[in-house]
Amino acid sequence: MTGNTLAQTAIYLLTLLALARPLGWYMARIYQGEPIGINHWLKPVEALIYRLSSVNPKEEMRWTDYAIAVLAFNLCGLLAVFALQRFQAYLPLNPQHLPGISPDSAFNTSVSFVSNTNWQSYVGEATLSYLTQMMGLTVQNFLSAATGMAVLVAFTRGFIRRNADTIGNFWVDLTRGTLYILLPLSLIFSLALAGQGVVQTLGPYQQTPLVESLAYSQPKLGEDGQALMDAEGKPIVANLELREQTLALGPAASQVAIKQLGSNGGGFFNVNSAHPFENPTPLSNFLEMLAILLIPASLCHTFGTMVGDTRQGWAILSAMTIVFVALVFVAVPAEQAGNPLLLELGVGQSASNLQAGGNMEGKEARFGIVNSALWAVATTAASNGSVNAMHDSFTPIGGLIPLWLMQLGEVIFGGVGSGLYGMIVFAIVAVFVAGLMIGRTPEYLGKKIEAYEMKMAAIVILIPPFLVLGGTALAVLADAGQAAVFNPGAHGFSEILYAFSSAGNNNGSAFAGLSANTPFYNCLLGLAMLFSRYWLIVPVLAIAGSLAAKKIVPVSAGTLPTHTPLFVGLLIVTILLVGALTFVPALALGPIAEHLIMIGK
Amino acid sequence: MLKHLKPALFMLLIWTVITGVAYPLAVTGLSQLLFPGQANGSLIKDSQGQPLGSELIGQAFSDPKYFWGRPSATSPYPYNAAASSGSNLGPTNPALADAVKARINALRGGDPENAMPIPVDLVTASGSGLDPHISPAAAEYQINRVAKARNLDAGKVRDLVGQHTEPRQWWVLGEPRVNVLGLNLALDGAVR
Hints:
Chain A has helices at 3-31, 38-41, 43-52, 63-86, 103-114, 124-127, 130-160, 170-196, 252-261, 282-306, 310-336, 340-343, 368-381, 396-407, 418-438, 451-477, 479-483, 490-503, 519-548, 565-600, and strands at 206-219, 237-247, 347-348, 443-444, 447-448. Chain A is mostly helical.
């Protein structure tokens, strides 16, 4: 790794960790309803929202009520996004006159955005109207993120409260998270991005002349949309000359800001943040990358502040950061090493002052290797799933890291809220394992961990692997599953495994060669996203309800401290062991086999 | 369930208005006011104000007198800015090696005396298919070809490349790069 590589990585991490404390503290104040400027000024707005939706903000909810509110709210969102896509042709703000979306694709996309996954089986600039993007997708970018954060806050209350039967009010947590945290941050980020060149307009696509006109051929289509054939059964090809370029525009900056901040990841354009209008400069790239991990990292401090022991938050953040840094140092060198098969052809891949070198297929010149690989690690550590380079073209090891980070359950930073509640579930498992070793009843933050909590924790940890491996197996066996594969050999298997790892952990990035916009994949991946989101939220809230009802056990000589380096190590080992034991066999068939083939040639 | 349905519907409605209408419109208004050039696609304009292209979106070049940009995998033609796409070719896919070989042949054919190793970004497709930049090494590789095709002094062309080379942002972020469209327009004398 060159000096500049290290410098860019270090600046990124230091900025992130420096912001975690103030933002984490701010979010704790917001969720606890303590005055901090903005929630005082906007108090009337907040009160108006409650009044209009007949919510009593003082009313506390049991965990079951909280869960039902989450599900009811998300179901309404799902139906709204579905309807917007189906009927976009009849609705305004559709300057390109795009037709309605097919039912399976609309189902997949609505699940995808409501569940905070933002898997994209559609081509944004070619299929979705401005209205669908704004009132469907952008809205769910906010609300799915706010839902994840609300569930985390309710979960945290399980540790704070004693002998209580309620864990807060979902509508209040949702409103505060959106109004005081996500909206102000998105405003700041979207304007910063627009200043760098991210487009933000409601005007139609722009026509510009080409300097050099371009000859190309395209099969002629009949009235039914099928390619016309000549007498010999070959498609008739039209030779065309192109003199103009059509630049796709749109209100991108506002959507890009929240898709990065809310661990959503669904791009405005097809290639997401690789598109120069979505991510035009190294600085915009830095800001977007920072936004990926900003809230997940800061929430660790929010958690520590709320439970009254900030060391607990820092311990969890340390565990996340250690795993993150270790994997960055695998992914970046793997991509920088380049592709040995191109080296044979006499291509210069070594880094110098004049070029980034390395494996540049699917990467942008302005980002080079370090920013592409660093982004890939960040976006899959968090359940963001936006990309600034095509993961399908990564080297086998460079692609293995994002794949495995998703399979770890999206707990290394993870999604906003969901990453941390997933991580705390792993912490519960870690104290349980430690309790078995030292022969004491396990406890975490003063709450006894008993059979009920362990059962729920086991569900949370086992469902994603079940979806990932089960879904992959099903797709590999089905003709419709195999037909979508783009790259041959072991890499093709990786494409399927990646798709289910992404959907089964609500990430949303893809090995995009896979033609996933088919009824088979739209339905199967849609179901995987649905289960991995809500079958986790319900048991997490169940743990919260159970913990809130318990009393606090005083610290004794038998208590395992959970803020020490020892516990951080134990937590990391627990996560990595579960992740390795579950997925190494599948990884061996995909990226590991491909790596051996590549270096063996 | 029913008890929660009413707040769920009304909350969705309210947040749709705030985050789906008010927020994007506010950002649109502020961006158009503060950064009109950037928010509308960073267009390069001639002296009459007619757009010549975008600073941020590359175009396809194959004439020896122009600098060539990154290969583009968009369809049905390269640099289709209405349908961005990468190639998604995996590293061991034979189609990748074949595509790279064809690009090497085109480059070597246009400049047979050039014995420099071909910079990797000049023979690999970009992520977006619209990459407006190449590395300084990729520009250096092409200087002699362009100079010869235009009967220009290579030193003059190199100066022009230097003028269109952007360093790392704030000396550390990203990679140094050359804007291909800007450079070619300058060679044609269309701008500046």
